[in-house]
Amino acid sequence: MVLRLLFVGFVAWIVSFPARGTAADRVEFVRDVYPILETYCVGCHTADDPQGGLVLEHYAGLAKGGETGVAVTPGVPASSRLLMMVRGEVEPVMPPDDAAGPDERELEILARWIEQGAAGPQGEMPVKRELRTPSIKPSPGVVAPITAIARSADGRVTARASYGRIEIEHASRDSETNEKTEISDEDLGKINSLTFSSDATHVLAASGLTGAYGRAAIYDTESGALIREFVGHQDTLYAAVFSPDGALVATAGYDRTIVLWDAESGDVVRRLTGHNGAIFDLAFSPDGTVLVSACADETVKVWNVEQGIRLDTLSQPEGEVFAVAITHDGRHIVAVSADNRLRAWRLRSIRTPRINPLVATRFMDETPIVNFAIAPDDQSLVAISESGSVKRVRRVDWQPLASLESLPESGTDLFITPDSRHVMISMMNGQVVSRPLPPIESSSTSRPENELRPVWMDLGEPISLDESTLRQAMTQPGGSPDSAAAILDVDRHVSIKGQIGRAGEVDLFRWQARKGEVWAIDADAATDSRLDPIVTVLSAAGEPVLRVRLQAVRDSYFTFRGKDSNQIGDFRVFNWEEMQLNDYLYAAGEVTRLQMHPRGPDSGFNVYPGQGNRWTYFGTSGTTHALGEPAYIVRPLPPGGEPLANGLPVFDVFYENDDDPRRLAGKNSRLLFTAPADGLYTVRIGDTRGEGGPAYGYRLAIRPARPGFRPTTKPISKPLHPATGREFQVQIDRLDGFDGAVTLEINGLPDRLVSNFPLTIEAGQRSATAVIWADPNEKGWEGEIEPTLTASALINGTRVERRAGSPGKLKFDPSPAQVIPILKPVDAEIAAHENWTLRVRRGETVSARVSVQRREGFQNEVSFGKEQSGRNASQGVYVDNIGLNGLLILAGASQREFFVTADPTAVPGKRSFFLTAGVDGGLASHPITVEVLP
């Protein structure tokens, strides 16, 4: 009871203190105390990083105290720890020794405030409208930078902002002189963004005072009058935007918080938190459902406006994200960042959290990309960099189109005129410049006018020649006996036997070719020869002939480990998340192609062909790559095309080859040459290492190219069981540049056995996986069943057909299989062993179920493989989310869900699909159909 009375008396004593003293000598927290705390204390005692647990940014933190207890004892200055530390009466002394502290007058103010009861502010703390810093006036005659510009939807009203000033210009309908409205407001300060309302009657400005507060304000565009202001941020604002219907205003800035305001009342609707850095830009989706934010924490976040929840974080950028937008059709999010890149994501998360897949990354410049604008026609965008470069990007494929005239000064903001023909850019020198935007050329697949049309030839049988005989015949009486460097003229279809007689020697053979003719050049080491041949095609002037120019569009390097010249798996490269399947990867003169995504951060890409030795492209040769070696994603430029100045290199690839790009000829050389013009061309052959001697013989063929293929089949070795199948693979060797699809058909298979024929080896691929499956009621057969396979393709308008072997003599074992795998939908029940269709859109993932019927006594783990577990899937369609252990059904379990992803590069269409359990040599499920939708 006594303690209770003492407590009540203590509270009454504290409450009585604010009344002490007259109004004239009363110390107020806001007017007198907080400026002292702000000057000497707040820097180390913020809410975000409070040293000693003490927050001095607001009165509530001061009253609460810190880790050592209360900081202020109302009415008793002598026992108030804050005052004692500032006076140096207790350790640690504050501020620290290297910082200035309050003077005697300020200490007296603190003591009097505590003595008077340490009362807090009446109501909310007022917004700090100015900083206590020296006023520095700009030099006379200095032009104020234009920090933001904007235009109305119809383009008739434009605005430009400089410090503390907005100038609005109205296009006059009746006179040549435009009407102007000037807004001058001492609270405007530095204006970081301008946005018009949909009807252009209002303009919204984002500004504030750095280190003090953020302010957004709506002004009338006709009168310039202030309509409403939104103050509530703790630091300056970088972005303020209207929602499409004008009902909301979204603001964000240095304090890392997004605030949604009611545009009519000015009330806060909700706050969105989660960023860890300054927020530089905001954008609504066209329907106002989604808001996206660009942040210094190297992310873009996607928010649902109505629910106020975060739907996704786009974390691919490697630097601060300066600007973000959503395309006018609402399909893509676009952002630019300090890592010199522009990125585009497919917008999928609208009302519920979903992954928004990255669809493009483009290296734009050697300096950060600071801003961009999407054209009103939604066909292109223009981006500006820190260096002043201005570049245009075509939206259909996100490819840079052209570099516009560079800026003479740093650009700050930009907009594109309503007709999408000009871009207006504001600069730090106080000017706004215009750059014309030429019409976008069609990106159709029609053949460019200057692209060579291939000419295929039939020149009959080759002429056999001997290099030594040719050389003797060209040596004239009285001439020099040393003619090793002389060029030997040969016919248009020849097979030459020769020898690199000494170290450093090369042999040269010249022949006549016409524009567009496609020639195959084969260089093989003779039997028991030590030669490692390399061939090069030279022009009449003796220079290597250019095959293609490759523009680097993304830079990278090898991580974790290097690669030898043959490996196809685990290509770990920096920034792999931004690469796409079928991209060309250039490193140290070799070009390969990405075939399969990594299965997570602990794995790498597989490159083509996905099995065997690595394929190379554009006639380049396989080579070894070191850890940390630079690598680039490249794209071939069209003939005569100019590379974009994006700060990345351009690689010239000549007609030269060391090792067969398709790895069919071992270390021997294979080169396809398309003559760029009529004329004489020379094949130069030598040893890659520069060696030579009597044991360095070769056979060189200069012949017309004959595109084709050579199929092979690996037969089934295990018997079939009821309700299961056996898989086998059909491969093709692609010859002389043939890259088309090959169709496989089976002959002689009884109707009661199920197969997935006809089967297609897709264009550019090496193999397809077939299955032959037996019905649950199958009892076996008498005699032998040995089907045959036929492969066919359309090559240069002619149907080419080849025998492809056989899956072998089929055997049957009537005993039950150890496991019977069955594929089923996740949301429906169907009869076992039926062909049903699993549909998946490009860029999306769907799920299905796999179950197993186990033979009595078999309870082992069942594996269906790893990255290749989806048998016969089309290129870009794969079983996803399997980690490094692959697709497993655990011991004793009977089923599991699995996921099938279709990459954005997958070709729409239907294809058979099955799984094979790794039991008893492989037991396959009944095939189903996977349909890839656009």
TrEMBL record:
Gene3D superfamilies registered for this protein in UniProt: YVTN repeat-like/Quinoprotein amine dehydrogenase (2.130.10.10)
WD repeats: 230-271, 272-313, 314-355
Pfam families registered for this protein in UniProt: PSCyt1, WD40
Domain Cytochrome C Planctomycete-type residues, every copy: 41-98
Transmembrane segments: none
Keywords recorded for this protein, A-Z: Repeat, WD repeat
Matching PANTHER family: POC1 CENTRIOLAR PROTEIN HOMOLOG, WD REPEAT-CONTAINING PROTEIN 55
Protein name as catalogued: WD domain, G-beta repeat
